[in-house]
Design brief:
Blueprint lengths: L1 E6 L3 E4 L10 E4 L2 E6 L2 H14 L6 H7 L9 E4 L1
Antiparallel strand pairs: 1-4, 1-5, 2-3
């Protein structure tokens, strides 16, 4: 098995300091390390893990919620 980084495109993230005033906005991306045989398998497993995880992976979930493909723009690089 080989290790891969599955990385989404950058997207704006607003850190909430106060509900009244909001907070600073940063450009961030989601990334996850996946073990898989091929690059294609890593992409499939990485996006699935981001969609299934209830933590802070936002890009793929936002894409799916907007009726867009969650794989759009996601890249895979070998570790």
């Amino acid at each position: 098995m080989r290790k891969w980084w599955v990385v989404t495109p950058e997207f704006p993230y607003t850190e909430i300091i106060s509900w009244e005033i909001g907070g600073p906005t940063y450009d961030v991306c989601d990334a996850i390390e996946i073990e898989a045989e091929t690059k294609h398998d890593a992409l499939r497993l990485g996006v699935k893990a981001m969609l299934d995880d209830h933590r802070s992976y936002e890009y793929c979930k936002d894409q799916r919620d907007a009726d867009m493909c969650p794989y759009t723009g996601v890249t895979v690089e070998e570790v």
